Amino acid sequence: MKKLLITLLSVGAMIAGVAQAELENPGGIGGVESLRGASELESTRPADDFKKFPREQVLESDFVYQPPLIPHSTRSYEVSLNANKCLSCHSWKNAKEMGATKISVTHYMNREDAVLADVSPRRYFCLQCHVPQANAKPLIENEYQRVESLR
Ligand code: HEC
Ligand code: HEC
Predict the structure, then answer these.
(1) Ligand 2 neighbour 132 (Cβ under 6 A)
(2) Which of 7, 35, 45, 81 could disulfide-link 139, Cβ–Cβ 3.0 to 4.6 Å?
(3) Residue 39 scores a pLDDT above 70
(4) Ligand 1 contact via 98 beta carbon (within 6 Å)
(5) In the predicted structure, residue 1 carries a pLDDT above the cut 60
(6) 70: Cβ below 6 Å to ligand 2?
(7) CB neighbour burial string for 84-100, b if at least 16 within 10 angstroms, e if fewer
(8) What's the pLDDT score for residue 136?
(9) Fold that domain 48-136 belongs to in CATH
(10) For residue 102, with 0-12 CB atoms within 10 Å meaning exposed, 13-18 middle and 19 or more buried, which class applies?
């Protein structure tokens, strides 16, 4: 009996939810409003410009052991079963010649902390942890502060 009551109540809540959603959008043209501005369904908003990654940008860490932000574009850099574009510059073998930072020894460690002869599968998909930083202005104010020890 209790179970039935709960079911009935939640179905009721669902119907109320649907009705409310309809009321909030009373037959308008419809569109999407976001922090990047509003656009209506029947007009095509021009595409945003590609983001720039200034060569001289210096990206500091906000907390200890943070995966460093990527200061350059990663457009069309393939990371797949067949190829890892990032390693063509960042591996220990290639870093010096390419003038890139070499990946640190942690990238060669497995989860038992054994150092492997090649990049650990845990660290193969670089963009899982590292993200590129463009010179994009924050869309909303951000009061985040870096940890005390890095200020
Ligand atoms: C063509 C060579 C090249 C490729 C490919 C490349 N990088 Fe880089 N990367 C560099 C160089 C050079 C730097 C040093 C900073 C600079 O000059 O932009 C750098 C800097 C970085 C840094 C910052 C290191 C630090 O010490 O703060 C990270 C993180 C990074 N790259 C990650 C990546 C990832 C992830 C990929 C693949 C999606 C990638 N890179 C592909 C050349 C490359
Ligand atoms: C599981 C998360 C993770 C993955 C995946 C990962 N990294 Fe990192 N990376 C880190 C962290 C955390 C650091 C900073 C601490 C350290 O060196 O371990 C770092 C540091 C770096 C640095 C700076 C090294 C230095 O000495 O300053 C480079 C360059 C880098 N990573 C490149 C890469 C590339 C290229 C890949 C893909 C092959 C990759 N990382 C994959 C987490 C990751």
Answers:
(1) no
(2) 35
(3) yes
(4) yes
(5) no
(6) no
(7) bebbebbbeeebeeeee
(8) 85
(9) Flavocytochrome C3; Chain A, domain 2 (1.10.1130)
(10) middle
Measure 15 CA to ligand 1 centroid, in angstroms. Answer: 52
Average pLDDT of the chain, as a whole number: 83
Query: Quick check: 5 pLDDT over 60?
Result: no
64: CA distance to ligand 1 center in Å?
Answer: 20
Q: Which atom of ligand 1 is nearest to the CA of 59?
A: 27
d(CA 53, CA 73): 6
Nearest CA to ligand 1 atom 3: 89
Give the ligand at the shortest distance from the Cα of 76.
Answer: 1
Q: How far is the CA of 122 from the centre of ligand 1 (A)?
A: 19
Task: Give the model confidence (pLDDT) of 55-82 as tens digits.
Answer: 998 889 999 999 999 999 999 999 999 9
Q: What is the pTM of this model?
A: 0.82
Q: Which residues contact 100 (CB under 8 A, 6 or more apart)?
A: 89, 90, 94
